[in-house]
Amino acid sequence: MSAEATSPGARSRRRGRTSIDLRRLGKAALLGPASRDRLPDAIGHVADAHRAHHPDADLLVLGKAYVLAEMSHRGQFRKSGEPYITHPLAVTLILAELGAETTTLTASLLHDTVEDTDVTLDQVRAEFGDEVCYLVDGVTKLEKVDYGAAAEPETFRKMLVATGNDVRVMSIKLADRLHNMRTLGVMRPEKQERIAKVTHDVLIPLAERLGVQALKTELEDLVFAILQPQEYERTRTVIADRATAGPGLDPVAGDVRRTLREADITAEVVIRPRHFLSVHRARLKRGEMRGTDFGRLLVLVGEDADCYAVLGELHTCFTPVISEFKDFIAAPKYNLYQSLHTAVAGPGGAVVEVLIRTHQMHKVAEAGVVALGNPYAPVDGAEPADGERADPTRPGWLSRLLEWQESATDPDTFWTTLRADLAQDREISVFLADGGMLGLPAGATCVDAAYAQYGDGAHGCIGARVNGRLATLSTVLVDGDTVQLLLAHSPVQEPRNGPDGAGEGSTASTGSTGDIEGAEDTRDPAHSQPQDAAPGPSPEWLDHARTPAARIAIAGWLAANPESLKVAAAPPRTPGAVTAGRRGVANVVVDVPEATVRLAGCCTPVPPDAVTGFTVRGGAVTVHRAECPAVGRMTALGRPPVAVSWGDEAECRVTLYAESFGRPRLLADLTEAIATAGAAIVSANVEPPSEQRVRHTYTLQLPDAAGLPGLMRAMRDVPGVFDVRRAQHEPAP
User: Fold this and answer.
1) Which one-letter DSSP state was computed for residue 679?
2) Which residues pair with 487 in a beta bridge?
3) Is 99 left (phi over 0), alpha (psi -120 to 50) or beta?
4) Total-model pTM
5) Which of 179, 346, 365, 719 is 20 to 30 A from 120 via CA?
6) 176-217: pLDDT as tens digits
7) Which uninterrupted H or E stretch holds 375?
């Protein structure tokens, strides 16, 4: 029952209530003044609207449903004093005018019978079939006596789950809310405001997602009037005084009709006034309103190709505003909307917005999923191949909603998350490296893509590549991006554009902040992680997650693994200095007799690098690679270089930096790769994760400098490592 329905003297509902004989009631009503082949007069206007869209529709079932609804609601009145049957009739008329098919209208007439009368779902099923029963059940509210304060969120959860099987459930709910909003004036102001807020936060976004613009725009105006009464009155005054705003759209519409007629393009050009909220937004955006700002031109044609022909003529004969052009025919919006949007300069330089679409596109733009008729009817009498219903609207947002709501068992969490989810009013499509595609809300990041693709398996995500290049998990994706998610338990796959999509030395990366196993010798114990610990998200991931599925999964993992919070909260330690160690003079020949020779830790020269030396305090000679930045600084200070050459020994010592995503056992895998290459580790340092990236510093003793390139390749091949390079700059103190 709507918020306005009352039932004077009605007894309270009980589970053990007596059932009524629907057949007897229906027969008695049909034997009244109207003959069997005529509909009751009260539903005649619904029948006329329905036949306008479906000339061959069987109307007898509508008459049967009306008789049941009228008999069962008899004695109930709305708060306005009208008989309650006027409500289901009004809701059904709204849907009939949008072009809903007979099954939807039948369920609409009965949508409050199970909730507010003694009619049961079993009786509806017996009289009208499973489909009508399902739709009626989908919009039937849960009782407060059973659910208390959770009744409203759980009712919406129930309706959304039912919508996942049949989008017609939400169509009926939207029409139901529209009629209730139209007659909300008899309610107390505080109740009007509460209902308007729920309509604004939940029902209007759902109408937008289902493409039912005709319902959405009227709901927006009704909510606008309740929640912002002063702005609404100001806007109404502006609209009433628009004659003073200068010439309207009529002259431009005439010019467009003449232009298309001369181009031999058959088209209907109409002026579509903006609704109240649209005028309010335009006024805020543009300031002073011109006559052309109060509406748009709508051009309707017969075929898709005609849309582009009209566009070409308009851009040829008028001055186009190129920044306003959008092609939603080639790339339809996620709610089925198709149209060309453009703008041209009108009289006096005023901007005139123009919408170009076919008649069928216009029908879908206004009615959305309602215009599909029965989207689940068999094609040519054949059932779907798999025996399951396939939603032709393919609403990715609905699939995501149905997935995350299963994890949001708490009604408050569900209700809050639902409102936040529906507040994101645009969608993007991103492509997966394996050829798949993900639909995500605008503003989604790599974190959201990971959970959309892998679910809870995304806990092990250690990084991502976007369009072939390494990217942070916080990277915001845009429509058309290609994303490859990297998991800790999978080898790092190479991108399609080469062996290293980011190139050597790339530092754009991120991953799990799970610490690296085996680093206990150089890091605070609070940062260590056992070898068998599973990788998982860090609290920072919540800052990057935009989808409810990702946020719920991350929060659940963090709650189940409180030790991860301690790891994240531990203060970073200043990395220790990298020590190159002392080298004997046997492999380096210098022109300073008896001098102590040291290989510079800033560039770690090895044979056959070109080298030079400089005398430092104590008479020691420090050897640098010729291209080391320190050489330029020493020369600028006037220090004379010392001639240096390599000796006969092949053994050398080198310092390498390895950049990686954090994951368990990474240090063990790296040290194994180093040992396999025949190098000995002189010293190692692993810095605390920074933005989910880990830096390793190794000083290694190699038996032969010629093995250095192979060693670096072996280290890069370790899963999770994306860059290995020799020390190039002086380490931070």
Assistant:
1) -
2) 461
3) left
4) 0.62
5) 179
6) 999 999 988 888 999 999 999 999 989 998 898 888 999 999
7) none
